[in-house]
């Protein structure tokens, strides 16, 4: 729970979350306050990571302060400001409840604060910032809290190439589709030799940047890939079906059919398109047998027409008759962000994966 006029980006879930002051990483406003109350499940303890605490210095942190209290034991941590910073980047509490209070009076400078937390059920650690930590070598595992998608910082690269090692680690994990932003989760990755150029990509609601050579790069590993390298293989579609298709008649009278079979990503030339002005159009894929579907890649059709799908829902079925919509962590039917042009490919991950024969 958060309350006050000084609260910035905040995402709180029972097992992990992020919180920041208003305007972060810009200067936080004068005369504001925010109070966050963190409540973890019974029997667990909270671990708090100080991503950034930059409050204007003052005696006893009187102008701006960050104070953490444990209501269960009466323990207080702080107050903190620029001349009284936390002694360690990670605070391990013995409590499932922590209150975080941020106050500001009149001041001139300061980015404010950025914190993340996780519970003791996730001992892999909490990380939010860049991955330049010299301890992160070879293969390692960290716990990324929920809400990393909107934190400050850039990512360079894409799921197939990997990511420049200066990328914001947990934000890159969301882009790579190994965790869902609204849930967070454990991330396994390795640091490998860098490459000359990292290409930009749009995936899972995030746009990465095009970046130059780096000494190292980050490669994310899905859990299923650790067990079976074939989990990211492209699944074979036995049959394509659609609600309708467009029979195009050109200016010179030539016919062209935008049928469902042309929806395969590898198809050259024109794609599938529904009838003009069709409502609630759908495309259906029959995978032949029940398969584990971990994501989808979409692309528009630039063949004479600048066509692409900007957003879509996904449903699945095991028998082709009873359909189940794909829902996000909130329980609402999820809307996936699609393409912004007809040229680029856009990836969206299914976390958890869909087990089904039919996908719409």
UniProtKB/TrEMBL annotation:
Paired cysteines (S-S): 7-34
GO cellular component: plasma membrane
Coarse class of the protein's main subcellular location: membrane
Keyword set includes Membrane: yes
Residue span(s) of domain CUB: 7-120
A single GO molecular function term of this UniProt record: signaling receptor activity
Domain F5/8 type C span(s) in chain numbering: 272-360
Domain LCCL: residue ranges: 142-218
Keywords: Disulfide bond, Membrane, Phosphoprotein, Transmembrane, Transmembrane helix
Subcellular location: Membrane
Protein topology in the membrane: Single-pass type I membrane protein
Pfam families on file: CUB, F5_F8_type_C, LCCL
Classification via PANTHER family: DISCOIDIN, CUB AND LCCL DOMAIN CONTAINING 1, F5/8 TYPE C DOMAIN-CONTAINING PROTEIN
Protein name: DCBD1 protein
Protein species of origin: Erithacus rubecula (European robin)
The organism's taxonomic lineage, starting at the top: Eukaryota, Metazoa, Chordata, Craniata, Vertebrata
Annotated gene: Dcbld1_1
